[in-house]
Design a protein that fits this description.
Largest sheet: 7 strands, mixed
Number of domains: 2
CATH topology of the largest domain: Rossmann fold
Number of strands: 16
Shape: globular
Structural class: alpha/beta
Helix content: 40-55%
Number of helices: 11
Order of helices and strands: EEEHHHHHEHEHEHEEEHEEHEEEEEH
CATH class of the largest domain: Alpha Beta
Strand content: 15-25%
Distance between the termini: 26 Å
Length: 350
């Protein structure tokens, strides 16, 4: 299994995704500030992986704290959580992880300092293990929706690299292949950061799953040629009504899928469902450095003085989503009911 991130005695070890696919290298963050930087610079990316990284970053910050009293440790803890929370605004898993660590800290305040620190480390490690198990369950549910053979399109990277392991959208594809289905993946390159061509293709190649990379503007043509039987993507936040925030370009793929009568599936853990946000209009959209658009491999592609927009995500309305695959089962419209039911079951099951 691809080791996206892991807790070590020295710190949080990340597979550096900015170097893929040409270089497989690892970096170890030895402070919470370095974990925050790894999230900001997309050394680690993908909503579930960001959530686990946040939990580990908080645990690392507490471990390194020089506080001598629980009161002072709480001050450090709050500062750490604030810094981690400022890294990526769209991925709701980030804030889910922070809240979970905050709730855990509150249950520990009467304990000795060493026990508090160890318990928070164990909580972060538990989040890592739970994410892998959730992805595998998601894969089992979603595999039933995949065609027995033929092409499946995915956009961005929602695989092991975007999670603690196995993957969400790619986890569904992996599970389908493990069940004997003959799937050929079409991976959108996913401009401007090229997560599809750099990361998805790299993952699937390592697994021996047949993959064809296409440029983003080829997706509609591939559908019209009859090469795509289903589409499965991940998500960074899902509103209560089923609107889905995912990598920029997902909305376009969903509209094209609707036009061609192709099912459009979203795979994401329950932690990505944000019942506090009624619909997609309330989802904050991160804007990234314009150089991601104006430059490719360090070479300028856009004339000086031209305005550039670089939103990292877009929102796909629920009406374009055929089903949402979670570790607790498959949600279908009306999503207000099905997502809430699955989320409530998850709380009871914890």
């Amino acid at each position: 299994m691809i080791q996206t991130l892991e807790w070590t005695d020295k710190g949080v070890r990340f597979l550096d995704q900015t170097k893929l696919p040409t270089e497989e290298s690892y970096v170890t963050a030895t402070s919470y500030q370095q974990v925050a930087d790894a999230i900001c610079t997309m050394v680690v990316r993908g909503a579930p992986a960001i959530g686990v990284a946040a939990g580990m970053g908080i645990a690392l910050g507490v471990k390194n704290s020089k506080a001598e009293t629980v009161g002072d440790l709480k001050k450090d803890f709050d500062q750490i959580c604030s810094a981690i929370g400022e890294t990526r605004p769209t991925a709701v898993n980030l804030f889910w992880a922070i809240r979970r660590m905050q709730e855990k800290f509150e249950t520990l305040r009467v304990r000795p300092m060493p026990q508090i620190k160890q318990a928070l480390i164990e909580e972060a490690q538990r989040m890592h293990a739970e994410d892998i198990a959730a992805n595998q369950a998601m894969g089992r549910h979603g595999a039933t929706l995949m065609p027995a053979s033929g092409g499946v399109l995915t956009h961005c990277n929602a695989g092991a690299l975007a999670t603690a392991g196995y993957g969400t959208a790619l986890g569904v594809i992996r599970a389908a292949v493990e069940q004997g289905k003959k799937i050929h993946v079409y991976a959108d390159e996913t401009r401007p950061f090229l997560q599809g061509s750099r990361l998805t293709a790299w993952e699937l190649m390592k697994d021996g799953i047949p993959t064809t990379v296409i440029s983003d503007n080829m997706a509609g043509a591939m559908m019209s040629y009859g090469k795509i039987g289903a589409i499965v993507v991940g998500a960074d936040r899902i509103a209560a009504n089923g609107d889905v925030a995912n990598k920029i370009g997902t909305y376009t793929v969903a509209v094209l899928a609707k036009e061609h009568g192709i099912p459009f599936y979203v795979a994401a853990p329950i932690s990505t469902v944000d019942l506090a946000t009624p619909d997609g209009s309330g989802i904050p959209i991160e804007n990234r450095n314009v150089k991601e658009v104006s430059h490719i491999a360090g070479k300028q592609m856009v004339p000086d003085g031209v305005e550039i927009e670089n939103p990292a995500f877009d929102v796909t309305p629920a009406k374009y989503v055929t089903a949402i695959i979670t570790e607790r089962g498959i949600a279908r419209a009306p999503y207000e009911d099905s997502l809430r039911k699955l989320a409530e079951e998850a709380v009871v099951g914890r």
